[in-house]
Amino acid sequence: LFVPTDLQQDAPVALDEAQSKYLFKVMRLNVGDPVRVFNGRHGEWKASVKEILGKTAGMLQVDEQTRRQGVLTDLHLYFAPLKKTRTDFVVEKATELGVEVIQPVITEYTQAERVRTDRLERLTMEAAEQTERLNMPRVQEPLSLIKLMSSLTDHRHVYYCDERGDDEGAAWGGDDNRARPMADVLMGKPPHSAAILIGPEGGFSPQERSMLRKMENVIPVSLGPRILRAETAAVSALTLYQALCGD
Ligand code: SAM
């Protein structure tokens, strides 16, 4: 259970209504039952139910630390927001796949420009609980592609998922302009600061593609010959990165 409070031995933790409902109504816990808690900063602790005040409030008591806060792979996801449920899916899977920063990016063809970061933060909390990671990714406010790319420092490699190549005509006509397969690019690379960049439903515009291709720390990569839905591309690229370079 995520509890946004300091965690230390013998500390009491007050439960809010949603947490109490979950523990006492859904999970049917009783006084003395164990609960694992984390706050995103101090690792994981074993706690136990101290008091049940009806079904909408209660207290835990922190017992002992069970896991220390580890250092995670420094992996960011930059993605153009999609329609609501598709964005939710991307955020949930990115959390499961160990992303540290989720950055919505507004591109020329982005259709869903409104992003409720507070909702997305709640989703990351639920996904972190289910996947047993001890922190949540930071969900940033949306940025335009140009602003984002100009704010990046040299040390981060941006894997730009590119299904076409830098020139639409040439790419459609043959394989010359195709990006290298992501697995080949990553093979043998140690963990490093990285970001994965995924475009919107309509892909990146020709201008954006040629701008990205000219940037030094941007590495175009292919996820295969088929055009994947944006959320499939995000999950595939994150999985590949974690399998080949993750800690
Ligand atoms: N129209 C579909 C949709 O609504 O999801 C396809 C969108 S696809 C153009 C969106 C993004 O997924 C692209 O900009 C690219 O970043 C990534 N992508 C899809 N297929 C890919 C592939 N085979 N290789 C690399 N990136 C890919």
UniProtKB/TrEMBL annotation:
> In which domain of life is the source organism classified?
Bacteria
A Gene Ontology biological process noted in the UniProt record is:
methylation
Recorded hits in InterPro entries, A to Z, give: Alpha/beta_knot_MTases, PUA-like_sf, RsmE, RsmE_MTase_dom, RsmE_PUA-like, tRNA_m1G_MTases_N
The yes or no answer to whether the keyword S-adenosyl-L-methionine is present is yes
Catalysed conversion reaction: uridine(1498) in 16S rRNA + S-adenosyl-L-methionine = N(3)-methyluridine(1498) in 16S rRNA + S-adenosyl-L-homocysteine + H(+)
Q: Which Gene3D superfamilies match?
A: 3.40.1280.10, Hypothetical PUA domain-like, domain 1
**Keyword Transferase recorded:** yes
Look up the coiled coil feature and give its residue ranges.
none
Record key words, sorted: Cytoplasm, Methyltransferase, rRNA processing, S-adenosyl-L-methionine, Transferase
Q: Please give the CDD domains that the UniProt record associates with this protein.
A: RsmE-like
Q: Where in the cell is it found?
A: Cytoplasm
Coarse class of the primary localization is cytoplasm
Q: What are the EC numbers?
A: 2.1.1.193
Residue ranges constituting the Ribosomal RNA small subunit methyltransferase E PUA-like domain according to the UniProt record? 15-55
Instruction: Please name the GO terms that the record assigns under molecular function.
Output: methyltransferase activity
What region holds the Ribosomal RNA small subunit methyltransferase E methyltransferase domain? 74-241
Q: Identify the PANTHER family for this entry.
A: 16S RRNA (URACIL(1498)-N(3))-METHYLTRANSFERASE (PTHR30027:SF3), RIBOSOMAL RNA SMALL SUBUNIT METHYLTRANSFERASE E (PTHR30027)
Protein family membership: Belongs to the RNA methyltransferase RsmE family.
> Which purpose does this protein serve, as stated in its record?
Specifically methylates the N3 position of the uracil ring of uridine 1498 (m3U1498) in 16S rRNA. Acts on the fully assembled 30S ribosomal subunit.
Q: List the protein's name.
A: Ribosomal RNA small subunit methyltransferase E
Q: Which taxonomic lineage does the organism of this UniProt entry have?
A: Bacteria, Pseudomonadati, Pseudomonadota, Alphaproteobacteria, Hyphomonadales
